[in-house]
Design brief:
The complex is a heterodimer of chains A (503) and B (161).
Chain A: E1 2-5, H1 10-37, H2 40-68, E2 70-74, E3 77-82, E4 88-93, E5 99-104, H3 106-111, E6 113-119, E7 124-131, H4 132-145, H5 160-173, E8 176-180, H6 183-192, H7 194-218, H8 223-228, H9 230-256, E9 260-263, E10 267-272, E11 277-283, E12 287-295, H10 296-301, E13 303-310, E14 330-338, H11 339-349, E15 359-360, H12 367-388, H13 393-414, E16 416-419, E17 423-429, E18 433-440, E19 444-451, H14 453-458, E20 460-469, E21 472-482, H15 483-493
Antiparallel strand pairs in A: 1-2, 2-3, 3-4, 5-6, 5-11, 6-7, 8-9, 9-10, 10-11, 12-13, 12-18, 13-14, 15-16, 16-17, 17-18, 19-20, 20-21
Helix pairs in contact in A: 1-2, 6-9, 7-9, 12-13
Chain B: E1 9-10, H1 15-44, H2 48-76, E2 78-81, E3 85-90, E4 95-101, E5 105-111, H3 114-118, E6 121-128, E7 132-139, H4 140-156
Antiparallel strand pairs in B: 1-2, 2-3, 3-4, 5-6, 6-7
Helix pairs in contact in B: 1-2
């Protein structure tokens, strides 16, 4: 039906480029280690030789892989044959293909080729580098066999001269543009994303740990020197923090540049990226659950974030090529959105969902149960560290103990759920954020109610819901809720059409 | 409350014997570990209290595992296949009651080992898209019946995940 085709020769270059970018940083670091020994040139040459050998070997392997990789369409199946020593054959039924996604790294863009992922609800096929003509041919052939596939309009895929025009027309071809991150939004995102702050704190703690413990231990004689240059140390730490933030921010800008979400009747399309562009299609009916997460900083400024879970049967062929966010089945749909705009966006995208707010039902007597074991851990750890290693460790320990107490209080105040006929809303407090999960009843894989004798005595129980995410599942646990609430959830979840044992 | 209206099917009393032999086999490994520790105490001249403690703890764990837990495990496991869902109740101390909708089940398999095969005891494993569940300590005929029952019900439903 469609003759055997090889990948574009450019695949050798894209892979070589990728290998180079991964190798350059560690090898440079190793060669610069030689600077301290005064043998920079010698070390640099050795590392350069290692670099070249690794690159050559890699390219040789890529060449064999390239020669042994082919794809074709036969009897309504798209078949990919590949493998270095063992030949693997992977085929997907054309009727099950849901979308053809493309992404391009800098190397791809330079050679005017593209990376293609052919998606089904289960297996995906990844073609590392094919020419635009090859992509056109595939989409044409697949379109003939399966008219429901969402593919790019051919106008987009022609010559460079038409590229700009195609880019302009792209938006209307791909559905309604419902969300777009501006550069200002991305910068806000880098500030409001609590993970940046968490890494700051971790760095600060590690920095103080290193300067106060390890250096003290290793170089007792330098104590005086350290004490006199506290200001310098603070300056160094602050500038390092600023550098880390700046690097993180640049990385986020490159990754999320022109982050746009398009909505069609059946699909959501996410496009993003500056140097490496990425396009991802999500079939609405395959969405397993939705998750709104808001950290305290976002709450303060009135922003929130929404992600969704999808199920995949397997990862793409090569780990490093899989989509970073969908690899674990979680896709960030709106990285930063105003809280008051979220409701309308969610309703537009997911009209079948109710998005009811959770009733906060965790009893007050649960507070100590949220914190008791962690508190014990931190008290023991703080005492041990203070007595054995560093007399000021109690200050850091105290921060963690207070955070832990706050977490217990927040969990009791903010955890809850809401049941509707076909949808469950669960709200769970985390250390720095609050998570709201919306799961349709039909998407829940299973429910567990847990109890031990102590909880039984207190009339409490735990309820855990599992829903599909990636190849595995995500579990959402409502801890230490009233027994009656746990069994309300239990009875609600029992599938219809069965005799019910009401509790 | 977790015990109210429990699933109907119980384990067969015959599995206690198998569970005890299983505990005995595990006990042998405990004892080998304990002997190793006693040897280390002797070799490095550590305080003798460590050797005494390790022997006492091993004996205690073995006795509980052999004389008490098989009965508790036997009593703790219940399961029932309803027309649209499977219900499992298990756990000796940490009790867990779970519901698995039949339409979510993707695979049912049966596991056994050399020892369990001799005693005609099997484990039924139920897989969904991302979670796995076990009904342990079933007699062979019960395990096969449970698998057949679930498989029959699966045929009637269709699901994409």
């Amino acid at each position: 039906m469609y003759n055997k085709q090889r990948l574009n020769k450019g695949t050798l270059f894209t892979k070589c480029f990728k290998r180079m970018t991964t190798l350059v940083v560690p090898l440079s670091i190793y060669s610069f280690i030689g600077l301290t020994d005064g043998e920079f040139l010698e070390m640099f040459l050795i590392m350069l030789a290692v670099f070249c050998v690794v690159l050559l070997l890699g390219t040789l392997i890529d060449l064999i892989k390239y020669l042994r990789t082919s794809y074709y369409i036969e009897n309504n199946r798209f078949i990919l044959k590949s493998g270095l020593f063992i030949k693997k054959e992977k085929d997907i039924q054309v009727s099950r293909i849901q979308s053809i996604d493309t992404s391009e790294t800098l190397a791809h863009r330079f050679l005017n080729i593209t990376k293609v992922t052919i998606q089904t609800p289960g297996k995906n096929i990844l073609l590392d580098a094919i020419s635009i003509e090859q992509l056109e041919e595939i989409t044409k052939q697949l379109n003939l066999l399966n008219t429901t596939i969402e593919v790019k309009n051919e106008d987009e895929l022609t010559t460079d001269a038409l590229a700009e025009q195609a880019r302009l027309s792209k938006k209307k071809d791909e559905g309604n543009l419902i969300y777009q991150l501006s550069l200002i939004d991305i910068i806000k995102l880098t500030v409001l994303n609590i993970s940046v702050i968490r890494s700051f704190i971790a760095f600060l703690l590690a920095g103080s740990f290193i300067s106060n413990i390890l250096i003290d231990f290793a170089f007792e004689q330098t104590n005086n020197l350290l004490n006199t240059s506290v200001l310098l140390l603070i300056l160094v730490i602050l500038s390092t923090l600023a550098a880390i933030y700046l690097l993180g921010a640049i990385f986020v800008i490159f990754k999320q540049y022109q982050f746009s979400v398009f909505l069609t009747d059946k699909q959501l399309k996410i496009k993003r990226g500056l140097l490496e562009t990425n396009s991802q299609t999500i079939v609405l009916e395959n969405i397993q659950s939705l998750e709104e997460q808001q950290n305290w900083l976002m709450k303060w400024f009135g922003y929130t974030t929404l992600s969704l879970s999808i199920a995949t049967d397997e990862n793409e062929d090569e780990d490093d090529d899989k989509n970073e966010e969908s690899g674990n089945g979680k896709v960030i749909l709106f990285p930063l959105v105003k809280t008051d705009q979220l409701a309308s966006l969610m309703t537009a995208c997911f009209p079948n969902y109710l998005f009811e707010p959770a009733d906060l039902i965790t009893p007050k007597r649960s507070i100590r149960r949220f914190i008791q074991f962690r508190l014990l851990f931190w008290v023991i750890a703080t005492l041990t560290m203070s007595i054995l290693f560093w007399s000021y460790a109690w200050m850091i320990g105290l921060i963690f103990i207070l955070l832990n107490l706050l977490f217990g209080y927040r969990s009791q105040r903010l955890n809850g759920y809401k049941l509707s006929d076909n949808e469950l809303t669960i709200q769970v407090a985390q250390r720095f954020s609050v998570k709201k999960i919306y799961i349709p009843r039909g998407r829940i894989l299973n429910l567990q109610i847990k109890q031990n004798p102590f909880l039984k005595k207190a009339g409490l129980a735990k309820a855990v819901f599992f829903s599909a995410q990636g190849q595995l599942s995500q579990d959402t646990e409502l801890k230490f809720i009233e027994e009656s609430n746990a069994f309300e959830l239990f009875n609600w979840f029992k599938p219809e059409g069965s005799e019910r044992n009401e509790y | 409350m977790i015990e109210e209206h429990p699933p109907l099917n119980k384990l067969d009393e015959a599995v206690i014997q198998y569970d005890k032999i299983d505990s005995l086999v595990i006990g042998i490994f405990y004892m080998i570990g304990c002997a190793g520790l006693v040897f280390l105490v002797y070799w490095f001249d550590w305080p003798i209290i460590f050797a005494i403690l390790s022997v006492l703890i091993t004996l205690l764990v073995f006795c509980v595992d052999y004389f008490v837990l098989p009965y508790l495990r036997y009593k703790s496991i219940r399961y029932e296949v309803h027309p649209t869902y499977l219900e499992i109740l298990k756990g000796v101390f940490f009790r867990k009651r779970e519901i698995i909708p039949i339409e979510r089940v993707q695979q049912v398999s049966i596991e056994d080992g050399p020892l369990s095969r001799r005693h005609h005891v099997q484990i039924v494993e139920i897989q969904t898209a991302g979670t796995g569940h076990q009904v342990p300590l079933l007699l062979e005929e019960d395990a096969q019946a449970l698998k057949a029952q679930i498989m029959d019900l699966i045929k009637e439903v269709q699901s994409d995940v």
